[in-house]
User: Fold these one by one.
Assistant:
Number 1:
Amino acid sequence: MRNPNTSSSSLSFVAAKSQQQPQQHQQPAQRSTAATGEPLSEFGREMQAGLSRTPRSISPKFFYDAAGSQLFDRICELPEYYPTRTELRILGECAGEIAGQIGPNAEIVEFGAGSLTKVRLLLDALETPKRYLPIDISGEHLEAAAERLKADYPKLVVQPIAADYTMPLVLPAPMAGAGRRVGFFPGSTIGNFEPDEALAFLQLAARMLRGGGLLIGVDLVKDPARLHAAYNDAQGVTGEFNLNLLRRANAELDADFDLDGFTHAAFYNAPRQRIEMHLVSRRAQNVSLKGEQFGFEEGETIHTEYSHKFTVEGLRALAVRAGFRPGAVWTDPEKLFSVHWLLA
Ligand code: AVJ
């Protein structure tokens, strides 16, 4: 994920004492722009760095401002975008079996929790789940979603953690009488990571969840035409989602990207088993961002996202390298998507 997630951030998880307050995590030291001397946001720093390197790139975690999150919700409803509805179907149909693997009194830690819809399928099937710890970068969105969840699950302890889970993160100690601590990482967000980052994430998750497990949703390798269509929808919503990054830079970083001067490009890189998304400059142009000028040639791109696809065996082998013991796997009849139970 980068659902959010890559590039310069390091991944690490540390266990700590139980805390009742939602946690806020510190941003790294601020850098300021030469032009104004004002401190830059994380988005500002990464955008400036991303436009300064060759080839240009920016982490997909910055897609998800309010408008971007809404566009992503629309993507999930598109006829071409099979992952969300397929994963929901698997979680719904296999919830009993999944709950059987997890066992009673579990503590669920969700990475990149968003609007907390998928976990309800799990909570409904689990035997007396004890606590739910959703981690999400968007603190406000998370608080609101957590309040709604609390109202629906009065016996569940809900403790949101506002954090970027690709950054160092402190988790509360297990509650007295808790069962397994189980990570939940749905949506194939792991596909956003570079292969070495995916391994690093899984290694840290295995360490953090030792004695428990990880339930992870992973999109599968399939007919490239099907993949291509999922990221090049007829209504152009995925293109709007991609271009929203530039709109966001204009609004937040006082940039002057011409939204008609860039176009969405997404293609399947078969040998690397991944969709690659880019923003392509349609002509030679200059863009300014926080007082700095960036020249684009016609056809020059900003890489915005990888969405890696896996085989069932490939994901299980990666999990073994990371220190998990692969357990059950659930898929849909067409083998579009998979949900894996990995013992930590
Ligand atoms: C949320 C990262 C899983 O890779 O399919 C959807 C994001 N990008 N359409 C994905 C996305 C373009 C999505 N993930």
Note: The chain has a mean pLDDT of 89.
Number 2:
Amino acid sequence: MSELVLDNVTKVFDDGGEDIVAVDEVSVDIADGEFLVLVGPSGCGKSTTLRMIAGLETVSRGEIRLDGQVINGRPPRERDIAMVFQSYALYPHMTVRQNMSFGLEESTEKSDDEIESLVTETGEMLGISPLLDRKPGELSGGQQQRVALGRAIVRDPKVFLMDEPLSNLDAKLRSQMRTELQRLQEDLDVTTVYVTHDQTEAMTMGDRIAILNDGVLQQVATPLEAYHQPANLFVAGFIGEPSMNFFETELQGDRLVAENFDYPLSQETREAVGDSTHVTLGVRPEDIELLDSGSASGDHDFETVVDVVEPMGNENNVYLSFESGGDADFVATITGMRSMEGGQPAVARFPESAIHLFDTDSGHALK
Ligand code: ATP
């Protein structure tokens, strides 16, 4: 069992007399064997959180517990945690084999032979057996990345911590390594905390994702929950590409009145809005239906004009405006070979089943 618990973990940096709260009362339980992705924009406190778990940074307030034991004060090497860095942090003058086994002699009770066979086995698992006698400088980025992973794996730790480990790889290799890493983590069944600013990486890799903003945890959920039921405006805008479209509206009776349209609500949705009067309506680009101009048939269909079309291969991002000649007000994603072009009128449908509603003032999700 390796359950990792962050209990109101806070980090305050002293920046020349001024307090910077980098991590603000973050609480999350990471189950044994779970792959948790910590995601958020630059500066939100991801690395600081990971470094506190690793013991590379002190905890200002709160507790970090591993298997029920508080580890706040324990030095890094006594935490049974292995960290993989973005920079790989390999020793350039050592071979791959030496990089993987370095320090193991002192930190485990294993004999040299046992360590040797562990390194060989791990090398096979990672497909780097032919490279074991090379030095890091003679390896590609992807191979170095595997060595860095191998070094973490041979330690057989209770927890893996990974800080943007794939960000130095090109797009193709990155997506290949994502799948590999995921499979590896599943096979090894080691509790893992993985930091990234890339929401695609978070969505595709994590059992659950923890979304941070300004040091504050916004939501901890499975990727699908975060996508379908974002807890607030921040999560809604952060998860999904292109981002969710937002329209500020005011509730009048059972209608949401936006600058360019009125959106009547069913009784059920109206009830979900409750007492909120300033309501932000969100709709994902992929949930918008585009119909031929003149075919508006309901209260949730709006006449628009295509501004620009961004071809993405098998789908197109269509930027639309409520007024002819105006700047784009929102974006819709359409699949298939349907062709649309700038200046063309179209009807945009925002199906009620797909819309998200938020209290504009608090940001909290209403529906
Ligand atoms: P990135 O994705 O850019 O690496 P991050 O989410 O990992 O960002 P952190 O590196 O954890 O963010 O930083 C969180 C906040 O704490 C930032 O505002 C940063 O400037 C601040 N910070 C980090 N380390 C220190 C430090 N040693 N002293 C003062 N402030 C710091």
Note: The chain has a mean pLDDT of 93.
